[in-house]
Amino acid sequence: MEERVQISILLDLYGDLLTDKQRSIMDLYFNDDLSLAEISEHTNTSRQAIFDLIKRCQKQLIEYENKLRLMEKNSQSESYKEIILNNIELLKAKVDNECLSFVEEIKRLVLEL
Amino acid sequence: MEERVQISILLDLYGDLLTDKQRSIMDLYFNDDLSLAEISEHTNTSRQAIFDLIKRCQKQLIEYENKLRLMEKNSQSESYKEIILNNIELLKAKVDNECLSFVEEIKRLVLEL
After folding, report:
1. What is the value of ipTM here, to two decimals?
2. Chain A residues with CB inside 8 Å of B16's CB?
């Protein structure tokens, strides 16, 4: 996975563990795609301080993932859900109307997981 | 939910974010059900220091839950899974052998989620 995409996912999973200021600057850089110079101007902070903060937070987010593994677990769950949904579609084509309502309910709930 | 049970679940979810020493003492108190006096003797640390550490870690675990809400999300997922599995059992009683293999595969994967 591209590092930028990975950090953006980790930010979504663990961003609430950062301070508001850290979270906001990480959002500007990784989600809004602003440059260091733009963030520096926008926040009235030196380019070097922004660079250091981003590097520090990146390291922190990776440490959270190494400990809690939420990205890894989510990715595995999504793979399972995809196979479940494929099986549900195959099943829908084969069952009668009475069974179809159970299958539709299962599908609805799997999508909520 | 009883506080002791709640802390034990939070310890399972967020314990890796504590230090090894904190994790170990929290385990002795909440999972192995040792008293403060027993942990104090076991770790060669004052009873007051153990008490303070436990209170501090409890607060920390609750803060993690307030930010990441893993316990809340897990509990909701478990409720959904229970209804899915009930629907699967109802469906199993109604479908023919060909469909049954799809239903069994769906059940197997839901249990992996």
Report:
1. 0.85
2. 67-68
